Amino acid sequence: MSQVVRKVVEEVLGRSPDARAAPAGGEPPRPNYQRQRALARMAELSSERPQPAGASAPAQARIRELGSELKRQRLTAVPRPEASSGPASSEPAPPPARAARPVAGGSRVVWRLGGDDGVWWLDAPHPDAVPESVRAVVAAEPTVVVAIARPRPRHVLETAEALAELEGARVLSAGSGRLLLGVTHGDVRALGAWARQTGSRLERAALDRRRVPRILGNPPPWAQALLGIPAVEAVGWIEGVAELDAVVLADLALGASGGLGTRVTVQAGHLVVTGSRPDVAAMLEELERQRVRLRIPSGGDR
Question: What would the pLDDT profile of 239-292 be if each residue is shown by its tens digit?
């Protein structure tokens, strides 16, 4: 019986068990899974008990069933690519190429601070989309625009310190009385990260109710214009002081210190001190001492 089954299998597969030659190059032949399954079925059939000669119909029926099944498998099998006749390469095959993902671009809001204040990313916008009021700070390349309609000294300080950390940045200023800066950089990724960090920094400064004296060394030209000061080594201020309270504080501090080589000016809501960094620090300390002594509230005490 096993010989009959083997013959049927070989006829269905279209070749004898020994007819498969080894491929060129000495490589071992690939396993023939169809033949292995057929041989397994043959072993199953041959292991059956011998039956009388007149009772062989069920076995013949199973042989025909096996032949039909092998034919279907042969017709539906996906052909495999033949092995290359050249020498086998020890290097692994490269992974399939992936389609390039487009880089996200376009103008967008980076950080909104309320009203007309915030940080924007302008990716070379269409000229017709840019009004004259901001055209001076928009470059023909990705530009981060920082805008504060009514800037206070803390906005100037935070923006200037943030710019000092972005080495190689190019700053465009409108000089319009508001904080309006365009910032470009050769590294677009670094510029994008800086935009987010600056927005977060300005938001924290706006929410901070403390009005401790602050000093900015070597203020850039745009900061000088916003603060109404000349080119100096350092500028410091106390925010949130009523105008006439600021007059009292400035008068007492200047009389007690002899001026210290500094200049003290009263601006809307704050006192501004300019001069050398050590002298500015000493004057701010005297102003704060007088404020506490007279119980004059500052922005954080209101």
Answer: 888 999 999 999 998 888 776 789 999 988 889 999 999 999 999 999 999 999
* Residue 166 to residue 194: CA distance in whole angstroms: 7
Q: Kindly list the distances between the CA atom of residue 143 and the CA atoms of 116, 193, 194, 216, 226, in Å, as whole numbers in the listed order.
A: 18, 13, 11, 25, 21
Measure the CA–CA gap between 169 and 248, rounded to whole angstroms. Answer: 41
For residue 248, what are the contacts with CB-CB under 8 A and spacing of at least 6?
294, 296
Model pTM? 0.62
Going from N- to C-terminal start, the domains of the chain cover 2-19+30-49+58-74, 106-208, 211-302
Cα–Cα distance, 43 to 58 (Å, whole number) = 16
* CATH fold for domain 211-302: Alpha-Beta Plaits (3.30.70)
- Enter the tokens of residue 130: 């840019």
Is residue 245 within a helix (H) or strand (E), and if so which, with residue range?
Answer: helix 243-257
